[in-house]
Amino acid sequence: MKLLNRFRQRRDVVAEGRALSLNELLRRARIEWHGVTLGQPDWSNHSHSLAFTLQSLHARFLFHAMFNAYWEPLTFELPSLPIEISLGWRRCIDTALVAPDDIRPLHEAAIVKEKTYVVESRSVVLLARSVENAVG
User: Fold this and answer.
1) Strand 110-112 vs strand 30-34: parallel, antiparallel, or unpaired?
2) How far does the chain reach from its first CA to its final CA, in angstroms?
3) pTM score of the predicted model
4) Measuring CA to CA, how many Å separate 94 from each of 13, 27, 63, 67, 100?
5) Reduced to 3 DSSP states, what percent helix, strand and coil does the chain have, rounded to the nearest 5?
6) Bridge partner residues of 116 (DSSP)
7) What's residue 49's pLDDT?
8) Which domains does the chain have, with CATH numbers?
9) What is the CA radius of gyration of the chain?
10) Alpha-carbon distances, residue 72 vs 33, 38, 39, 69, 120 (angstroms)
11) Is 122 in contact with 69 (CB distance < 8 Å)?
12) Strand pairing partners for 52?
């Protein structure tokens, strides 16, 4: 829980000299919605999955979150990264993994180079990249 709290507090959320609430951040952020296929969110009542890509307010970080509420694993497509940060995404959170690998600070997170990611049943994954220095 401490790592999750620390991760949240390091968000790129300062605007006009004050911290934003999560609700304010979501209203201002550039969000692209997806399903297991990029650009194809399933908004139906029977959907069990959702994903989104979000760029932080000052464009310092890029996040890709995947949510699987289904009872089986689902394979999600991952967005391509700009060439300057092509080392891959960093897996910061995967609730299906055993501690301490379930949550890692960005600089310690495992690199994901594949074009897809298998999200286990009833779990959440957050991938991230630092756009500023491309080393995570």
Assistant:
1) unpaired
2) 21
3) 0.82
4) 23, 25, 13, 10, 10
5) 15, 35, 50
6) 77
7) 97
8) 2-130 (2.60.40.1180)
9) 15
10) 22, 20, 22, 9, 7
11) yes
12) 33, 65
What does the alpha-carbon distance between residue 48 and residue 76 come to, in Å, rounded to a whole number? 12
> φ, ψ for residue 8 (rounded to 5)?
-65, -40
Asked if residues 102 and 109 have their Cβ atoms less than 8 Å apart, the reply is no
d(CA 49, CA 73): 10
Q: What is the number of H-type helices and E-type strands within the chain?
A: 2, 10
DSSP sequence for 56-122: -TTSSEEEEEEEE-SSS-EEEE-PPPPGGGTT-EEEEEETTSPTTTTB--GGGSEEE-SSEEEEPTT
d(C-alpha 108, C-alpha 91), whole Å: 9
37-91, pLDDT tens digit by residue?
999 999 999 999 999 998 877 777 889 999 999 999 999 999 987 665 557 899 9
